[in-house]
Amino acid sequence: MKYLQVVLVLLLTNQIMSQDTIMALWPEGKIPNHIETDEREVRLSTDIVRISQVQQPSLEVYLPAKKNATGEAVLIFPGGGYEILAYDWEGTDIAKFLNGKGIAGIVVKYRLPSSVSQKDKHNVPLIDAQRAMRMVRSKASEFNIDRSKIGILGFSAGGHLAATLGTHFNNKVYEPIDAIDKESARPDFMALGYPVITFGEGTHSGSRKNLIGKNPSQEMMDRFSLEKNVTSQTPPTFLIHTSDDKGVPVENSLLFYKALKDADVSATMHIYPKGGHGFSLALKDPQLRGWTERMFEWLESLK
To answer: Which option is the CATH number for 2-302: 3.40.50.720, 3.60.140.10, 3.40.50.1820, 2.60.40.10?
Structure first.
């Protein structure tokens, strides 16, 4: 009986600890632009975990041991064409990898644009991204991180959202609801993996359609063509892409790099000849997997 009690305590403790790593982005009943419907979140686990129809956006927090911590934190935006989130492939796996370098990895489960459960759906991912940055900054002491070393990392459409945050962090897309919203939403640095950047020629048509519709106005396309929205306040940026990317052409990163350079924003770009699209950590590719070390070197250079 005593053994059973110990087992139950351990199970309960583990459950509490795992629950502590997941935080709701918004207080209950106060999610901006949300419409209560019968739509429910879907999570499919096959070769990777795919999440769609997100209703309750959240942060999943992975912290390194305090003795290893650099003070840096990275918010991670998984890709998936604004239709699904490749949640482990470009999310939790990345966070755990960052922990090995002493960096806090925080996966953002952001809402995907939905005409059913949202109003002004084109604003919804950015709303969640701004809130995520503000929440992490507000919890810097609790997470043992430096408030001035909080960056973002996004892949594919998640790269588009990250770059949207990096260029639209001052845009007011929701009404403040608490003290957290007094924090700055500006990332201190930005890393983009094979990102969707432009909604003009060479775009990923699925991402554009899902976010701003089949027949968007020129104003809407310009707003979300992020190479047109870079300013001197855009954070230092690291870009990786492959020349043979058929999903999101490499021209997306080239456009953004040029815009950063023209705005006198520090930018580093690595283009690999092969690797296609959606390679995540590229652990099975001896050439491509070096991108993570290049990113860590770049982070060191920012100090």
So the answer is: 3.40.50.1820
